[in-house]
Amino acid sequence: MKIGIIISQTNPETVWNVFRLANFSLKQGDEVKIFLIGEGVEYEKSSSEKFNITEQAIEFLKSDKARILACGTCLKSRDQEGTNTCPMSTMKDLYALVQECDKILTF
User: Fold this and answer.
1) Does CATH number 1.10.20.10 belong to domain 2-106?
2) Given pLDDT bands bounded at 50, 70 and 90, which one contains residue 3?
3) Do 16 and 51 form a contact (C-beta atoms < 8 A)?
């Protein structure tokens, strides 16, 4: 199954659980793409010892069936540049994700 996940917030516990679900889904053999939009592009700043989002994101990106995309406009509006764990993308990429995925989850 192809799963698309859209993250538009920075609540640490929520984002941590999203990545936990994404990692679990990969272990089940699914393909998972995460699109960060709005506040979601700041997800890395929410990582903490209790909710280690960075650790989950690094684990996620080890899979060849995993991909993270981030809204370029949202990054630019926050004076951020794309990174490996938050790569700059476009609305066209979000549209393609919605078209190709079997399931879309939003957080």
Assistant:
1) no
2) very high
3) yes
